[in-house]
C-alpha cells in the first residue's frame, strides 16, 4: 500500500497476524506462551516493505533526484512485542499508523526544532 500525504511517501506492508509478534534481525515470529514461537511464512514483512519502498522510489524519482520513501509494517490485529531489530518501523493497529500519516511533515518538523 502506498500513501502520499503530509509525512511524504510511505509504503505500508499490512499484516493481519493475531497474537503477539516480535522481530529478531528482520525475522518475524508469533510469540508463544513459553518463548518465541512460529516464524512467519514467506518473506519477512520488514524486508518486503523495504523492497517495495525501493521499487516505489525508483518509479517516482524525478529530475531533482530521488524522493524519500519510508517503509513501515502495520499489524492490524497483533500486539507488538520486541521489534527493535526490525529494519523498518512497525506499528500496532490502524490508529497508530493513522497518527503517523497525519503527522507533521518531516521537513517542517526539522525546521521547528
Characterization of the model:
The chain has 113 residues and is α/β, with parallel strands linked by helices. 27% of the residues lie in helices and 42% in strands. It has a domain at 10-35 and 69-89. It is built from three helices and six strands. Strands 1, 2, 3, 4, 5 and 6 form a six-stranded mixed beta sheet that branches. Strand 1 (2-5) and strand 2 form a beta hairpin. The radius of gyration is 15 Å and the shape is elongated.
Q: What coarse outline follows from CA principal-axis ratios?
A: elongated
Q: What proportion of the residues is helical, as a percent range? A: 25-40%
Number of strands: 6
**How can the largest sheet be summarized?**
6 strands, mixed
> Between the first and last Cα atoms, what is the distance in angstroms?
31 Å
**What count of helical segments does DSSP give?**
3
Strand content range? 35-45%
Oligomer: single chain
A few lines on this structure:
The protein has 113 residues and is of the alpha/beta class.
Ordered list of secondary-structure elements with their pairings:
Layout: E1 2-5, E2 8-24, E3 27-32, E4 35-39, H1 45-60, E5 69-80, E6 90-92, H2 94-101, H3 106-112
Parallel strand pairs: 2-5, 5-6
Antiparallel strand pairs: 1-2, 2-3, 3-4
Which structural traits does this protein have?
six-stranded mixed beta sheet; 3 helices; alpha/beta; 113 residues; disordered C terminus; 27% helix; 6 strands
